[in-house]
Predict the structure.
Amino acid sequence: MKTKAVVLVSGGMDSCVTAAIAAEKHTLAFLHLNYGQRTEKREAQAFHAIADHYQVKERLEVDARFFNTIGGSSLTDPNIPVKQADLEFEGIPDSYVPFRNANILAIATSYAEVIGAAHIYIGAVEEDSSGYPDCREAFYEAYNKVIDIGTRPETRIRIETPLIHMKKAEIIQKGMALEAPLHLSWSCYQDSEIACGVCDSCALRLRGFAAAGLEDPIPYRIRPDYDSSGG
């Protein structure tokens, strides 16, 4: 009998491939957060489409719009514009939502403990995660210790980060090999009808597809020719 895993599914490409990886080993439960992000409705649509694809019966959609109230990110504060992609930038971009993943993992741990899931899957990518500090392997190693300390003695839950050391092109190739429904995913930070093609998330995705020698199946307003050598 398969063990149960909670998969954090934003609706983006990385979480879509992570779901495909988890589906090989586990019975799936999906978790999604609405946190006041610009493309909240479109991401929720992608979440449910991916859940339907994998016939996931247990799915939890959580209202976390306190992030919108806190602000501090171009994804949640309408007064902070989403900048055009700069893939050479090495600092922490203004699209970083302060300590978001820690909050998401706390909710996921509560959910996993209640439904008896032994794993939490998250599609974090360290190398090209846009410089987000809560996408680093050390963060997840530390969080696993927090879960061990802060749950019931008999509870055994582990965070799994199968993409953590992969490049975008490798993630796409893995997704294609597993027949992940990448056409259902949505990555754009600012547009919900047609992906902008110029935000960091679109740029990383398009560069990854270029490096993989494949065409991204979702529509873009413009498709800049990002250097595929860094994908």
